[in-house]
Known about the structure:
By secondary structure, this protein is mainly alpha-helical.
Amino acid sequence: MSGPDDELFEIFKKELEEHVEVLEHSLLEIEKKPGKSDPELLNRILRACHSMKGASGFFGYDNIGKLSHAMENVFERVRDGKCVPDTPFVEIMLEAVDRLKF
């Protein structure tokens, strides 16, 4: 029998998987158009990073929280035109996303 904490954790894992999927898909979209940034795509990425950061903190997964926070900061720089999302950028971000997986 599972308790409320187990159920919440399963919800957290499922949401994390969904956010990771959003990030992977979005990064692959960015890779198709290197050097360009789509504001809607960046907002989707930022929401996913922000949501992961908050949920991971709630469950005490500090490493996930720190990584998603760092990714959020990097994508804010892209949104603000301070960083260009080229192919090496996407490769590094995809490696970071892989580290978010359970």
